[in-house]
């Protein structure tokens, strides 16, 4: 599943301080090999270079939790 800017997503990366948090896609970047990575903005910062495999679409009610 690909994501667009302003999509709400949950990050799953045990090496990130934002693991398990819901954020917003603020930028998409495509490498010369066709791989897409994302920059995700959170309340306390952002995570850049996130591969699609580390993201899942946030549930509609996640926005109400914040």
TrEMBL record:
Ranges of Acidic residues composition bias in the record: 44-66
- Disordered: where is this region? 43-66
Superkingdom, according to UniProt? Archaea
Name recorded for this polypeptide = DUF1918 domain-containing protein
């Amino acid at each position: 599943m690909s994501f667009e800017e302003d999509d709400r997503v949950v990050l799953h990366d045990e090496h990130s301080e934002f693991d398990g948090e819901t954020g917003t896609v603020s930028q998409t970047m495509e490498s010369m090999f066709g791989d897409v990575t994302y920059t995700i903005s959170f309340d306390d910062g952002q995570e850049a270079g996130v591969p699609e495999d580390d993201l899942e679409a946030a549930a509609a009610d996640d926005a109400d939790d914040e």
